[in-house]
Amino acid sequence: MKLSTRGRYAVMALAEMAAREMAARDRAPEAVRSRAPTCLAEIAAAQQLSVAYLEQLFAKLRRAGLVASARGPGGGYRLALPPAAIAIADIVDAVEEPITTTRCEGGNPGCLAAGLRCRTHDLWHELGAQIRLFLAGVTLEDVVRERVAGRAAAPLPPRAEGPAATAAAVVAAANGD
């Protein structure tokens, strides 16, 4: 799987900002509109990240409309949307190329010679889709409020086919299973 430090660090930084903004809102809801921006040095110190690296990430996050910048003394960044409206997938998309789990690159149709797919291509492609769906369903507010653990859904049981499976299903239904 390819999820670089860009994606992880951007999520960490915005989760730090969201936690600060949500704490300020909980203390004084009327002050949210006039909240002071957070400087990158504070985020970097709290999350043990490089300020220079955060500057690069925040330029991309700003272009994606996820943060707004304030210049001058006391300047910094604010979330452009409420934490509940920012999906983790949006953050990852803003700072890097899509998450990939296959060997296929660019517009190539397959990962083997002559554009053929390996036998496990669909498995890895579907894993990537599941990761994307999971990240799209989790918001910054979910992360800050610690509502992420336990959200990964168990896979459906494999489908059995044929007369033996049908008979087993009938027996299970008769037993109340």
UniProtKB/TrEMBL annotation:
A single MF term (Gene Ontology): DNA binding
Keywords associated with the record: DNA-binding
Pfam families: Rrf2
Top-level taxon of origin: Bacteria
GO cellular component assignments: cytosol
Keyword DNA-binding: yes
Keyword NADP in record: no
InterPro entries per record: TR_Rrf2-type_CS, Tscrpt_reg_Rrf2, WH-like_DNA-bd_sf, WH_DNA-bd_sf
Name this protein carries in UniProt: Rrf2 family transcriptional regulator
Organism encoding this protein: Caldovatus sediminis
Lineage: Bacteria, Pseudomonadati, Pseudomonadota, Alphaproteobacteria, Acetobacterales
